[in-house]
Amino acid sequence: MNKPGYIRIDTVHQGDQDGIKGVYHINAVDEVTQYEVVLSCERICEQFLIPILTEMLETFPFNISGFHADNGSEYINHKVAELLNKLNIELTKSRSRHSNDNALAESKNASVVRKIFGYSHIEQHWADKLNSFNREHLNPFLNYHRPCYFPTTLTDDKGKERKQYHYDKMMTPYEKLKSLDQSEDYLKDALSFELLDKEAYKVSDNQAADQMNLAKKRLFKQINEQKKA
User: Fold this and answer.
1) Could you state, in order of their start, the residue ranges of all structural domains in the chain?
2) N or C: which terminal CB in the chain sees fewer CB atoms within 10 Å?
């Protein structure tokens, strides 16, 4: 399959402390392009989760055809199914005791979400400010400025497949999307690569990283100052 629009989704919890629940991060990754959207959610319940999932689906520049989640009840429920049915998106779930079914999202949890937000407790009420950071800095950086490995699959004489990862094959998710055959056809109706290029190339990769790190530093300064108060 070389068509974008099949996303893997998972949840990362930002810990509990003294009985106080931490914020949740929802991480969605496209299987083909590794296009990624991270948003934070105050609580895992219909009131907070459905608006976040709706925004995530709207944020991807291409139409979503499939939505794969683990067996968590936050995704496998009637309200989520109703949302996806309305958009003609197929819902699939990981098989019991087959954690590698959602390996792509779980690997991004470690390499992206934990790397950015760490493991320390962050209270739920920070979700809105975290999302301002996600929308303005993290998600644009991940998709326009952070290269990913895209494996080459080799098949031996016995039919066994193995993947090779080459440095010269690294691309950003946006570059990968543009490299697909008939890539323009996958974009949502209101979008074009001409429009997306303006967003993707308005700053360099280094500038985007610097801006994201500065915004992260300011955000965590606020969070840590409140903890000390």
Assistant:
1) 6-148+204-228
2) C
CA–CA distance, 59 with 63 (Å, rounded to integer): 10
Q: How many whole angstroms separate alpha carbon 71 and alpha carbon 96?
A: 7
Q: Provide the token pair at 218.
A: 């300011």
Give Cα separations from 20 to 14, 134, 147, 225 (angstroms): 11, 23, 36, 18
- Smallest Cα–Cα separation from 109: which of 50, 176, 24? 24
Confirm whether pTM is higher than 0.85.
yes
Output phi, psi for 116, to 5 deg.
-80, -50
CATH topology of domain 6-148+204-228: Nucleotidyltransferase; domain 5 (3.30.420)
Q: Closest Cα partner for 28 from 80, 65, 67?
A: 67
Residue 103's CB is within 10 A of a number of other CB atoms, namely 12
Q: Are 59 and 30 in contact (CB under 8 A)?
A: no
pLDDT in tens, the chain (229 residues): 689 999 998 889 998 888 888 999 999 999 999 999 999 999 888 888 889 999 999 999 999 999 888 756 566 677 788 888 887 788 877 544 444 545 777 788 888 999 999 999 999 999 999 999 999 999 999 999 999 998 787 777 777 777 777 888 899 999 999 999 999 999 999 999 999 999 999 999 999 999 999 999 999 999 999 877 6
Q: How far apart are CA 181 and CA 123, in angstroms?
A: 44
Amino acid symbol at 50:
I
